[in-house]
Design goal:
It is a multi-pass membrane protein. InterPro entries: DUF1232 (IPR010652). The protein is an all-alpha fold and 124 residues long. 73% of the residues lie in helices and 0% in strands. The longest helix has 22 residues.
Length: 124
Amino acid sequence: MLKKAKAWAKALKRDIIALWLAARDSRVPLTAKLVAGAVAAYALSPVDLIPDFIPVLGYLDDLILVPLGILLAIRLVPPELMSEFRLMAEQRSGRPVSRMGFAVILAIWLACIIFVLWSLKDRF
């Protein structure tokens, strides 16, 4: 069972990098590029939309949302291209970093904080 989990995690990591590559390739349809780019940026971002310290919900994105997003993005990328990107991902030695994903997550959190403060301004 542990061996299966490790293999799944390794395949997931490879697919995230493959999607990161797909989002930058001109042969990939625009819809697939957008979904692949969003999923890869979120998965590679050092910041989560739902922080892990929040009970249950904190790991929900890591366990459910990210794998579902990966599955959707993989279905949108043409199979022959996805095979090529997977091969390229296996050959890469380093993990890409998504500064854009980091910036988007921070912007969402900032917007939420501004909204909460704006909503509470009349109460204080």
